[in-house]
Specification:
The chain is built from two helices and five strands. The chain is α+β, with helices and mostly antiparallel strands and 82 residues long. It has a domain of 47 residues. The strands form two sheets. The protein has a three-stranded antiparallel sheet with strand order 4-1-5. Strand 2 and strand 3 form a beta hairpin. The N and C termini lie far apart (91 Å).
Length: 82
């Protein structure tokens, strides 16, 4: 006997997979909108895996590594005589 337990049709939607929660960094090759804001050429942003693949396919972005962390600004020590 066949069982439909765990089927997307029975569960009422698409089953969540690990790849649905995966995010990738992309570098914009052409401007595009993300969350109502323009991503300019050269900017690196974090997007869902599926969107990253669509942007790459449309030649609007390339998948890249996470941007290097910027070093924290150094606090200047004041030297007071006296």
């Amino acid at each position: 006997m066949l069982s439909a337990t765990g089927s997307a049709l029975v569960a009422g939607g698409i089953p969540e997979t690990h790849s649905m929660h995966k995010h990738l960094y992309v570098r914009a090759l052409r401007p595009f909108y993300l969350a109502g804001k323009t991503v300019k050429v050269g900017e690196v942003v974090l997007v869902p895996h599926v969107l990253a693949q669509e942007l790459r396919g449309a030649h609007k972005a390339e998948i890249t590594e996470a941007p290097a962390a910027k070093p924290a600004p150094k606090k200047e020590e004041s030297k007071h005589a006296g």
